[in-house]
């Protein structure tokens, strides 16, 4: 890619020379704003691309334009129609579609020898190699998605409102394409290629029933015909409208995405030409592009007859290759390796035939989430970046980080973070993959973030790398929503920057804490201070030496208020005298150093300034309600990531090992477990996404029933998957050689933490009864 323009040398081929002075005079008199003086200073350079209709870069007095003209000499009747290009660009520009603004059309051949038009010059990036080697995978995805959104926009215009009635040749586009390309191929064929004949016949016999569908189509929609914004993934202009017409929109989509199916045997041929695909593109995937396209056009991702359009595209490519070779035979081809084109016709035709037989191209990978739950553009971009970051940095670090914790288990260092983790955090921060959980900071919806959280949940320490880990996320939410300016400055800012971490102290050893009104710890006012006394336990993260602050819930007695107004939350710096870490608690024997442990903490006459109270006395429950909605969904989403990882392990093991003469997965019971696991994950994910969407649409409070349902369903589903994975792995499954045992221990606690299942079930039942009674009242 490069910054456009990269005009080639001055016009070299004599047939492209024209009278520059005549052009300059003409533009001076006809083109508003074109500088007239000084005469004779118009600079003209020809672009190396755009051979069909020669294209020139014009510059005068600091202004730049682009001129496109017909070639000289006898031309095919319907080709090189620059007046059509001008017309379509004019219509699209007026409709707000990204094209260079067409400024002037000249049919007077006496000026430069042929018809021509002049358009605005657009400054930006053009990528010549479709694998975009100059950008990273995340940017490539973003650019491709921007491209496909632009294509969808093009196809959603109504011809009439564009004023382009009669622009094409009416219904029957596919039929015409098949017969045109067949004629061209027949005229150029040098030898009999049965696959080509079969493909032509198949296409003629399998025309799509909706061949009357007519949209404005580009005809040559490729990433190298697009000018992107110099730094952003934004389309500034789509170029080269020579082949535009009206026809079936899926023909454009198939043409744009055909490289995903390109035969490996002919990669790299004709570099710089449409046949020059060199590298495979993994991100974005075919499915991602297609589901984005379908979503933008609001059409089903099933894409009926897409096999026809891909087959047609390959037929066309094979025809073009044959044409290049035919021109080589008569000594008229420009490319040096033209003779090689004969070799590709057959594999292209064969691939076309193969594709014609494929029955489905639906975007299965994203179908459920793609159709039902629309992720924003930004959400998609960040999700892709996170996926890439996981692949590039997190998974390769897993071994070293686990080893660190294993080796430090009995030393003083056990609570410290491994240096590699700190480095990963810096990297993630530098890439902007930071604080994604907080909508006001990240600009992401809960639905966007839910899907990102799942990705990070595949690795136990990944959420921390992105500064998206509990309990810091919940505490940051509390400070963000309810903190005073000073509280935010002192505690929220360093937390957001990842300079410190925090813990949350609610649960108490001496009372049943699932009923938070039981909490006994006291917060009593004495002059300008509050004094805290009590015992807390299960304060997650308190072992981390970087844990500098606790948010503590306790009783600020007010005998006249209700049960739910007796408690408050207060900020307590960890180094306040009287605060003492008593012991870490184990989780099924694990100390969970990775999450900073879970501590029992005692508070003896711990004194903090009055200004440390959050929101005010008696408002602890109000804060707790606000804190737990999105946080719970994020936990659920992360654990779905763990379930995916466990199912992956299960399937790998089932395919590796053998008992009683069969692979494990060939035993039907194991096959059924695999299926059941997939069912559980999909069901749980759908519910989670649905809840995330409801929070986005209605807010935390009105999504309370859904949050509670998700909080019960997901850990159960995930535990089932991990349990199956343990079973299939046998003894290894419960050992330190596999992550499953720790996963199980950790996920099992989610049925207790943030309120045990039973409490949530009671809530769900209460809401259900309320909803039912509302229905009943409505009927009466
Ligand atoms: C790994 C882990 C991390 C944690 N992190 C934190 C943290 O950072 N900060 C913090 O404050 N707390 C934390 N907790 C504590 C957690 O929130 C509590 O354990 C939970 O709220 C339950 O309270 P409890 O342990 O006192 O159980 P109890 O209240 O004693 O309840 C015990 C059981 O009684 C039953 N029960 C309770 N209510 C009902 C009901 N209405 N109907 C039927 N049965 C019922 C349930 O089966 C429940 O499991 C963590 C816990 C774990 C395991």
TrEMBL record:
GO terms for molecular function: acyl-CoA dehydrogenase activity; flavin adenine dinucleotide binding. Keywords: FAD, Fatty acid metabolism, Flavoprotein, Lipid metabolism, Membrane, Oxidoreductase, Peroxisome. The keyword Methyltransferase does not apply. One of its GO terms (cellular component) is mitochondrial membrane. Residues 503-606 form the Acyl-CoA oxidase/dehydrogenase middle domain. Residues 618-767 form the Acyl-CoA dehydrogenase/oxidase C-terminal domain. Residues 44-262 form the Aminoglycoside phosphotransferase domain. Its main location: mitochondrion. It is found in: Mitochondrion membrane; Peroxisome. Pfam families: Acyl-CoA_dh_1 (PF00441), Acyl-CoA_dh_M (PF02770), Acyl-CoA_dh_N (PF02771), APH (PF01636). Residues 397-499 form the Acyl-CoA dehydrogenase/oxidase N-terminal domain. Pathway: Lipid metabolism; fatty acid beta-oxidation. It comes from the Eukaryota. It catalyses: tricosanoyl-CoA + oxidized [electron-transfer flavoprotein] + H(+) = (2E)-tricosenoyl-CoA + reduced [electron-transfer flavoprotein]; eicosanoyl-CoA + oxidized [electron-transfer flavoprotein] + H(+) = (2E)-eicosenoyl-CoA + reduced [electron-transfer flavoprotein]; tetracosanoyl-CoA + oxidized [electron-transfer flavoprotein] + H(+) = (2E)-tetracosenoyl-CoA + reduced [electron-transfer flavoprotein]; docosanoyl-CoA + oxidized [electron-transfer flavoprotein] + H(+) = (2E)-docosenoyl-CoA + reduced [electron-transfer flavoprotein]. One of its GO terms (biological process) is fatty acid beta-oxidation using acyl-CoA dehydrogenase. Its cofactor is FAD. Belongs to the acyl-CoA dehydrogenase family. Acyl-CoA dehydrogenase, that exhibits maximal activity towards saturated C22-CoA. Probably participates in beta-oxydation and energy production but could also play a role in the metabolism of specific fatty acids to control fatty acids composition of cellular lipids in brain. Homodimer. This is Acyl-CoA dehydrogenase family member 11.
